[in-house]
Design a protein that fits this description.
With 248 residues, the chain is an all-alpha fold. It has 2 domains: 124 residues, no CATH class; 109 residues, Orthogonal Bundle (Arc Repressor Mutant, subunit A), CATH 1.10.10. It is 70% helix and 0% strand. The chain starts with 9 loop residues before the first helix and ends in a 9-residue tail after the last helix. The mean pLDDT is 84.
Length: 248
């Protein structure tokens, strides 16, 4: 009986590794601050329960490593890759959370879930949604396929968070901001004399002339024809993209 306390079931080990690997895939390609809570809870609910001390110790080791990797990845996303000068230390917060557990009897799964809840709330407070980075990404990619999900993934936040914070910052939705960026691009192409209307609108990323004409009226309150008749300075003012009303 005592020997069983220190044994490891192959079935348990294979199942645990499979669930951790599945979660790593979710974190790698889909994760963000808002989804972190549900990802952690889902992992713990699917992990097989450890029945021996060795299985519990193995689980703790795997979850500590997953916590460190996950925290560092989420933190890099919040910075666009560079975290050298930030005082918010991802790895240190992971180890502090697990160290506080000490030899308490709380299972590793519970500690992991509590860590995820606390860590990602702290990360969200320290690094609000990078809406200005999202606006820059939209401008740079406006000629291609742009969706809310693609923008959110590029800056490392949940689409719901980005939509909400973008509206607060710019007083318009990411979609409307994209339309205005494309409209400005179209008008500059036309002003350069290098494109006619049809080639300019497709180059700028519009799917059809109708979408361009509708956006011109909706964004500027004037028709495309009226915009083209404006002097250059007046046109630039009409097409100027808004700036964020607050900076964090």
């Amino acid at each position: 009986m005592e020997a069983q306390l220190y044994s490891v079931s192959d079935d348990w080990l294979h199942a645990a590794i499979a669930e951790v690997q599945r979660s790593i895939g979710v974190i790698e390609f889909q994760e963000d601050e808002l989804g972190a809570f549900s990802t952690a809870r889902d992992l713990i609910s699917r992990l097989p329960e450890p029945h021996t001390q060795v299985e519990e110790q193995l689980l703790r080791g795997v979850l500590v490593e997953l916590s460190v990797w996950w925290a560092a990845k989420a933190h890099r996303r919040a910075h666009g890759g560079d975290v050298a000068s930030c005082s918010f230390r991802a790895e240190a917060q992971v180890h502090d959370a697990w160290r506080m557990r000490g030899d308490m009897p709380s299972p590793s799964g519970q500690v992991f879930t509590e860590w995820a809840d606390q860590y990602f709330r702290a990360l969200r407070l320290a690094h609000p949604a990078p809406v200005e980075e999202a606006a820059r990404w939209i401008r740079e990619h406006s000629r291609g396929r742009v969706t809310l999900r693609l923008v959110a993934r590029a800056v490392g936040v949940h689409p719901v968070v980005l939509q909400r914070d973008f509206k607060v910052c710019f007083r318009l939705s990411p979609h409307t901001y994209l339309q205005r960026a494309r409209l400005a691009d179209t008008m500059h192409l036309l002003a350069s004399g290098s494109h006619d209307v049809r080639s300019a609108l497709y180059t700028a990323g519009w799917s059809s002339p109708k979408s361009l004409y509708r956006a011109a009226r909706g964004s500027s309150g004037t028709s495309l024809h009226e915009l083209r008749a404006l002097p250059r300075e007046a046109l630039d003012r009409a097409l100027e993209l808004p700036t964020c009303v607050h900076s964090n």
